[in-house]
Backbone:
């Protein structure tokens, strides 16, 4: 029994959890198995090897943890830092805010760098903090690659450059929850020490896996980090890695098979093609927003996110009503505005396993909803703008025959 | 292993097989069972009772046959007619043509009434034939409710009226393959003697069930009909109905559960709402075609089909290229033009479990393909026209909470 | 909603439909697709090629028909014979009886050769009939390879030998419904002209595919055979084979993917290993029956079937009660006795995707049911006998790592 | 692609993860959804209400946490205790040992009470500790209801009685991972303060949910407990409960639907019937072990577990070889001996959605493996003993028609 039903498909455009490809749903459609048989370790070995590719790392060590993104955050922090440690962290929206809240609750001393919601992390302040910190009291710079609440992408290469400019040894911890597998992410090149994502985002799986990747420097830090941790302790994983049985506690058999299938699809399409597809759909979405005469919550092009677009509605409209109506009338799931931007923005997630016509159906739906709630949109305008771009830029995609 | 893969969903807009609702896919995701256990007859009883509702009959007897629409045709004909029998049948497109071909191969003497492909059945000729046939040599009038190749819907109430006007006792046999469960169909009211459909059409199941419903008069006719038949013989079904075990040979367990789920969804939505949804999506499609400046293959509004629209392309375009390109570039499946209209039309199926945004995604795709192949379409125009209509006419659909 | 529920798995031991392997269930867990896209013909080509392997033919032409075994029978007969044609056919149980009934209803002149139910086909009578038939009035010898109702396997090599001994040109038509993919079947070597099976038997799929394979001689015969046929006409298939689109009417997308997966599993295990596994499980079952002190319905070892065992119960027990009780008490599905042996035998199907412990669970269940219904079985005796054999004869089976 | 394949089903008899019922697999066979739509909270409300029933509590507050049993432990401990707190905890096998290890790593001061592996918790020592502790320095008594490594069930009613005898206010924390939904568990009656289980055990779901239930006293304790916790903090859940949106971070949509289906099945069967079924299968297993002449690792009947039986092998046999061989030869998954009993015991899990014939198949398999590895078992003996018991004690189970 489902708890809702509308004819036809649900159009899932929240920025997570996202659409699961059918081959992945099929791969997970199975009974449990003994995870101590020879089969599961054999598969796990391939998963750990292949997961590194989505982080673009060869030296990192991945941990596939039965948890959510929030748990992955905690794993990243508690394994590398000690209570009282100073971190620099940036509030640019609800998820970066929640991560900082976690950092504070874990007892770190957080230098909170605030920006307007709709701007990227203020890296000038980072630079000045690092410049001042000749004593290296800053133990970690924590940053969200892509803020899911506002659709803002931070420039990680620049963060690395600033760290390098000041030869600062702080750990570089990155939340890649709504970026990894959708936006180009280069762990090794950017010297990221811990990167993490969640299965229900661009990997296009169900929720349930927090995937964390640690650089050798992070692994080294974990040996002295004093934060309390048991469930999230990397040590337990490393012990079972060396035993060749891999799992300190029971993994989800279904998610392992799902991850295997998801990675296979990503590699078959080609990671760079996946990024290009996200760029294409992101651009098309922004062109539609522009055509509707609405503002992108993200204030500058340099921060535009190719995985989620937060659309600012006029003051006389409650963006939550747009989301409600989309669901009830068109079986369309859009993202709510959160916290500071609640009621002010709605969000279109365009990440994960998605194609042009799915997005165009969503955009057409948004147009009708806008009209429903009294915004004087010209019907078809956003779709026209998106089509004009997509028709020129979409490659031939269907393959295998 | 699939034999093709493109990122995101396939957009399935051929006029059959159509999209299967997820709850139905779930219901069929199962092992085989003993069909002679008490469970399967118990379920079958509900199916036979409920299937009558989709034909709008109380006196008809349904047969759920493990076959396709072609087999259902053969079941309808061979059980009610004898070799040499005279039938009147109408060619208005490829499927009505194939049915006539079958009638001829089965040895009937067919009065073939031809119309332009794009017109409905010529009922004036029917009237004159019946008028002349005072000896009642015509044993059956065979008509396709909805011609899937051209998107033409015939007026069955009018056929009945003509039969009544001449008090003609001919059997009234109807192919409802692409109409039943999508267009209003009234077996009892229209005095239809045999009606039939296939599971992969508006029932939104996989292929594999030919569902035939026979009036008491048709059952009576079957007692003397001399056409050879064994697999398709209703007698075997009737025998097992009276035994309470229902199946003369092994049914597909999966399709039985699927049919149960499909009927449940149809009744939850409400058959009249289902028809209204098809009318809405059909109208939206036709408005888009008009906005593109293209012609509907169907020549008059009275014949417009709410389940499939055949779109005529300009002579300098090969419609097959539109279909090919849709599949390769946008993961969109459109219907080819068949036989006389091959290369000249492509078809948009808008039947089965489908909603507004799915259709709008398809229409946006068609616009881009039209541009791809050199037709000077104004991008967004069709979607705009469809949206303008849909935004005013779509009810709140998502329910259960 | 299921129509029954017991905790744990259903133990499916009817001789069809049989257990579907999980990878096959997964492969079929999918939406519909356009069968006219490039993907489906590409897959179909591999299916037609690979299906020949299960018949052990290189020269035969297979037809994958959306029907059941009964339909496959009709396809075999109507494509090769004409009304009035003389056939020789053998009654050895309910299914051979039904096939003869079909032959008679199709208008053939059938020489019915009867045997006790529990014996194989009387091939001496065949020999004498062929000897007498110097005028070659016998057009076909029709025989069931494995009679599912009694668990009797006929010797097809011997049939061929008799045909050859008399240089008789009659067509050799074989029902391999409960044998092909389980028992060794050699179409080319045995000169079989039409062989057929159903998807729900040893192929371990849902019901819905009748698979028929025709020798060049049978194809030749089809050009002059005068039986009425339309749906079952090979001609339509051959036309679409030459077009490269393969399907004269809509196939079940799900069954195509299922067949692909089922064949892959069979070839991975190896057909000869599959036969050996069936031989092993058949032998184990017979040893259990013997240990229980019950009689096999099959009277001689030369006819013992490795796919189904019909067990004779003492006269004071109604075998139908055994089946009923198995289902209600132990979630075990056994086969009923049919027609002449109704109430007298129950059947254990041991064909398809099955292994040792599944069978042993079934045998243990049968022992408890026998006790339930008052038969003085020694609990554990049948399992002990089966185990003693299996423990010595089961190879290491689990692979891939 | 699976990483192993053997013909027929895998026989899953590890004590977790256990077999998932087909209706639950079906319920989880779905795409993601927006968990902020009205549908998911509506379903969640029913889940939270119904989950209380499996704990037999009306006053407890449940938390459904995206984690494993290990995480559920951590949630129970960190929310109710502070670093330095004194706990009493019992080692009776590997899992109780791991829980104590966690307690120590979390900084508690654990009074470890050891027993032989194969004995229950030494409650006399608990009594004496409580007697001495007039200052109430003991903050919690932590006990595993059922030790999965040895198949030992502790008497929780007795623990409560001892606490009451000494009017000791210590919290009563219970790991019910391999008991809840299989063994009778009475949270309110026994005054349990925190009880927990994991989805992959008797609930018969995939891994991924740690389900924790807190008494009002535990909730009160959580307000002052000083253990570091963020991901596992109940406070976040309570906040979202009061908001009516329920989830502080993304839940697994699939597991929610799976839990709904699993609870529905449990309630349909009836919890007391579920317990009786486990008792029946546990007893049958022990009778088989006895018949084989082998020892149960559990030393006294009062501790016999109805969810898992650890079987002691003779010294000349390596129990790991039994497990390996079961998997490779019979597609049977048994549990390894862990830690102190590695190589000495193998384990048969008989919990979750399981029936008689499944267990009997497993027992027959174990007999053959025992023979394989050189133990002089009498084939059939264990099955005979189990059948003799089951045949007298199994109710009619299959229902709905």
Residues:
């Amino acid at each position: 029994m489902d708890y809702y039903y509308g004819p036809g498909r649900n159009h899932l455009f929240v920025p997570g959890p996202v659409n699961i490809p059918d081959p992945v749903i099929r791969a997970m459609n199975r009974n449990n198995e003994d995870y101590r048989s020879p089969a599961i370790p054999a598969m796990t070995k391939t998963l750990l090897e292949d997961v590194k590719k989505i982080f673009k790392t060869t030296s990192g060590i991945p941990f596939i943890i039965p948890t959510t993104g929030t748990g992955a955050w905690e794993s990243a922090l508690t394994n590398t830092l000690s209570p009282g440690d100073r971190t620099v962290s940036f509030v640019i929206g609800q998820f970066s805010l929640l991560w900082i809240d976690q950092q504070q609750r874990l007892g770190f001393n957080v230098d909170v760098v605030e920006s307007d919601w709709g701007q990227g992390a203020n890296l000038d302040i980072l630079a000045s903090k690092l410049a001042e910190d000749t004593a290296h009291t800053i133990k970690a710079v924590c940053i969200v690659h892509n803020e899911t609440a506002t659709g803002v992408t931070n420039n990680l290469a620049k963060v690395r450059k600033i760290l390098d400019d000041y030869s600062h040894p702080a750990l570089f911890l990155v939340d890649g929850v709504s970026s990894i597998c959708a936006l180009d992410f280069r762990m090794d090149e950017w010297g990221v020490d811990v990167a993490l994502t969640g299965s229900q985002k661009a990997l296009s799986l169900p929720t349930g896996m927090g995937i964390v990747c640690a650089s050798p420097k992070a692994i080294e830090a974990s040996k002295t980090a004093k934060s309390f941790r048991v469930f999230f302790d990397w040590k337990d994983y490393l012990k079972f890695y060396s035993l060749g049985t891999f799992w300190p506690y029971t993994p989800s058999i279904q998610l392992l098979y799902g991850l295997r299938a998801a990675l296979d699809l990503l590699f078959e399409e080609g990671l760079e093609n996946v990024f290009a597809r996200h760029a294409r759909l992101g651009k098309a979405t922004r062109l539609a927003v522009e055509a509707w005469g609405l503002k992108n919550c993200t204030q500058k092009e340099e921060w535009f996110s190719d995985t989620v677009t937060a659309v600012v509605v006029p003051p006389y409209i409650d963006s939550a009503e747009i989301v409600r109506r989309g669901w009830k009338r068109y079986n369309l799931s859009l993202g709510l505005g959160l916290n500071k931007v609640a009621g002010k923005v709605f969000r279109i997630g365009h990440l994960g396993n998605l194609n042009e016509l799915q997005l165009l159906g969503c955009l057409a739906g948004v147009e009708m909803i806008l009209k429903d709630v009294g915004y004087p949109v010209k019907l078809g305008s956003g779709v026209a703008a998106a089509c004009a771009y997509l028709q020129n830029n979409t490659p031939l995609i269907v393959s295998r025959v």
